[in-house]
Amino acid sequence: MWEEQDNRLKRTFKFRDFSEAFAFMTRVAFLAEQQNHHPNWSNVWNVVQIELTTHDEANTVTEKDRKLAKSIDGLLN
């Protein structure tokens, strides 16, 4: 579940292994490019952490962030 904290939407995803985590990141990258809204993220082995904020709007959470978060969630179904 996404958590709004410090003007960011944050979520941590855990996968079986690095390959699964990296494949997820690749799918997220395509979504981000389509929406022209790119996440701050990190990956360590099977864990991907994503933070969304809108830099153009003084680093606040906007509808762009909520839309991308919903699209990312859709990859897990």
Give a verbal description of the structure.
- InterPro entries: PCD_sf, Pterin_deHydtase.
- It comes from Emticicia oligotrophica (strain DSM 17448 / CIP 109782 / MTCC 6937 / GPTSA100-15).
- It catalyses: (4aS,6R)-4a-hydroxy-L-erythro-5,6,7,8-tetrahydrobiopterin = (6R)-L-erythro-6,7-dihydrobiopterin + H2O.
- The protein has 77 residues and is α+β, with helices and mostly antiparallel strands.
- It has a single domain, classed as Transcriptional coactivator/pterin dehydratase (Gyrase A, domain 2).
- It contains 2 helices and 4 strands, in the order E-E-H-E-E-H.
- The protein has helices at residues 18-35, 63-74, and strands at residues 3-5, 8-14, 40-44, 47-52.
- The chain has a 4-stranded antiparallel sheet, with helices on one face.
- A hairpin with a 2-residue loop joins strand 1 and strand 2 (8-14).
- Helix 1 (18-35) packs across helix 2.
- It starts with a strand and ends with a helix.
- The relative contact order is 0.24.
Name the shape in a single word.
globular
CA-CA gap between termini: 14 Å
Order of helices and strands, N to C?
EEHEEH
Instruction: Summarize the main sheet.
Output: 4 strands, antiparallel
Can you describe this structure in just a few lines?
The chain has 77 residues and is α+β, with helices and mostly antiparallel strands.
What attributes characterize this protein structure?
77 residues, alpha+beta, Pterin_deHydtase, 4a-hydroxytetrahydrobiopterin dehydratase, single chain, Gyrase A, domain 2, 2 helices
Fold blueprint:
Blueprint: E1 3-5, E2 8-14, H1 18-35, E3 40-44, E4 47-52, H2 63-74
Antiparallel strand pairs: 1-2, 2-4, 3-4
